């Protein structure tokens, strides 16, 4: 009697499946990396290519610039693709001259004389000329006088003013040094009043703030409020305008203003 031939039993191959840990890693990668990138691209496209996005960028631009300078920037419209051909229209910038056209004209005349330009022979104002004009206006230790006033160092300030040249020709550069210091302090103090720590703010400045200046800048930030800084800036601007229109700048007016600032600093 024939016997059946036994068949070899081959178990079915198991179906391959993705380990749960690997699936979790993929989901994490999609959620943490890919999704934020996609959302960022969508936001960028909306801001760059729509009228709604252009308006939001315009408001942010104007707000950030005005928070960081004395003067006022106004932008009427921002239109176009921000990544390629955006256009700003109706742009107006008023500086510390208070939008006084006479002062602006006088400053432009000084620049024209420096580069030897005239209506008949216009010249391009390049960066080298701007740097040279700035360096010329910053000769001498004008910043020291401004800093002594802002830190309330009355005795040292009085000694420095006693050695100040009698002609008073350096009065305007000193005032502009004061304005530059105020321009630096104003946004920093605003950050402090929003809750940030002064030491953290100074650390974030890095090399843009000379390390020897950090202690006195920190003292100024601890003394002056944003409102007080705005008041000093307004007074400095008015004094600058009065000195510009004076044939012989008044050294006494400068000294009185710096001493008044120093006394205010000591009382804070």
What do these coordinates show?
Helices cover 63% and strands 6% of the residues. The protein is mainly α. It folds into three domains: 34-94, no CATH class; 96-136, no CATH class; 138-267, Zinc Finger, Delta Prime, domain 3 (Up-down Bundle). A two-stranded antiparallel sheet has the order 1-2. A hairpin with a 7-residue loop joins strand 1 (72-79) and strand 2 (87-94). The longest helix has 30 residues, at 20-49.
* Overall average pLDDT: 76
Reported by name, the CATH topology of the largest domain is Zinc Finger, Delta Prime, domain 3
Strand ordering within the main sheet: 1-2
User: What is the beta-strand fraction?
Assistant: 5-15%
How many E strands? Answer: 2
Shape: extended
Whole-number count of domains: 3
- Helix-strand makeup class: mainly alpha
- Rg of Cα set: 31 Å
Flag low-confidence runs.
136-140
CATH architectural grouping of the largest domain: Up-down Bundle
- Please work out how many helical segments DSSP would assign: 11
Name of the top-level CATH class of the largest domain? Mainly Alpha
**Cα end-to-end separation:** 119 Å
